Amino acid sequence: MSRGNKPVGKGLWPVLILGPLLMASLLPAVSASGATARENSGAQAVASSSAAARAREVLRQVATHGESWKMIHAAEALVALGEGPAVRALFTANEAADRSDYRIGAWRVRARTAESPEERSRWIGKIEAVLLDPASPDRLDAIETLSKLNCVISGPTLAASRQLAAGLSESDGTFPLWALALANEPGALERLAGVLTSANSQARGRAAYALRWLRPSSPQVLRALAQAADAEAADTDALPYMLGAALALNADPLRAGAWQARLEKILAAGETSARYEACQTLMVRYGIADLPRFQPLLEDPESDTRVGAAWSVLFIEARSRDHPAARGRSAQRSIRGFIEPKNERRTSNAQLPTSNAIVAASVSAWAFEHRRSSRSRSEAPIVADRMS
Fold it and tell me: What is the pTM of this model?
């Protein structure tokens, strides 16, 4: 075939002759590259499996032999990872926990592993009773836990929360404000966001922590959070909570890279509580290739650091296998509701018996908690440090 007087096919002969020769010369390199990729993938899978086994061992050890709230953190991680029945059996046998200074945490675990809505409601009722007792030393634990269990307070519980919000310090007052915001109390969310600029770093961190759970969609609140994250100094205890909330709520996508870099420094060299918080935020931003960042922390002397690292390893490993526990919107929202900026607060569930708190639909299985502060409860019955 020709176009005019010039044969069209003439220029194709070099290609027809040299093409196969060129392809043949490349095949060994391509094959070697494929083999190397398969070897790397296999080695990565082995490393991942080994890390996951160690991580699960860490969580079981701390849940069984850990101290107070550290045990609660490990237990709730195991619940999130599908070991609810085992955790339920463990806490059923541990009657001492119900009489301890971390009893609210134990009841939270019991509520999350309840086998029926009625049983769950009974544990929530016990938590409410603590909040309503002015003599209880763990009232703030109670109100924080009600919020973490996604309970929309009403009646006497709502009234008590209003009183606490008005009468407590700015820092401790963040917890009743959190509960009030969850109950759609007018102005509560805005008051909580206003604490982000407090002169008290503990108050700022607690406000960011609560906002992360609440997942507000308000542009004004998200803008305030982004500005607060940028302004937070590197040496404050509020920093990991600020950065974590700003990243999880996508407060400003253009700043996400800078926030993550700051959080990675905390993961590498921060204090125990800060590293724990960094783990909870970074686990959903990392992939299987990032497991080496967490593996050394599995041997850390501090239990909460080990728990945070173990949870991260298992979350990432499960997601890499497309495990149902790490798949879909509920899993992405899982990390204490910290992932999506959209507020998806649940409405009351008619199947659940109503007490002073209207129990909303079950909290995400991937919700997880924070450590208690090291300050002693004996300092003051109602103003002890939170985020347990």
Answer: 0.76
Bigger pLDDT: 327 vs 105: 105
Domain tally for the chain?
Answer: 1
The boundaries of the domain holding residue 152 are 53-379
User: Residue 245 falls within a domain, yes or no?
Assistant: yes
Q: Is residue 29 part of a domain?
A: no
Q: How confident is the model at residue 384 (pLDDT cuts 50, 70, 90)?
A: very low
**Could you write out the three-class secondary structure of the chain?**
CEECCEEHHHHHHHHHHHHHHHHHHHHHHHHHHHHHHHHHHHHHHHHHHHHHHHHHHHHHHHHHHCCHHHHHHHHHHHHHCCCHHHHHHHHHHCHHHHHCCCHHHHHHHHHHCCCCHHHHHHHHHHHHHHHHCCCCCCHHHHHHHHHHCCEEECHHHHHHHHHHHHHCCCCCCHHHHHHHHHCCCCCHHHHHHHHHHCCCHHHHHHHHHHHHHHCCCCHHHHHHHHHHHHHCCCCCCCHHHHHHHHHHCCCCHHHHHHHHHHHHHHHHHCCHHHHHHHHHHHCCCCCHHHHHHHHHHHHCCCHHHHHHHHHHHHHHHHHHCCCHHHCHHHHHCCCCCCCCCCCCCCCECCCCCCCCEEEECCCCCCCCCCCCCCCCHHHCCCCCCCCC
Q: What is the pLDDT of residues 130-156, one digit of tens each?
A: 999 999 999 999 999 999 999 999 999
Of the pLDDT bands very low, low, confident and very high (cuts 50, 70, 90), residue 330 is: very low
pLDDT at 70 over 80: yes
- Mean pLDDT along residues 351-364: 30
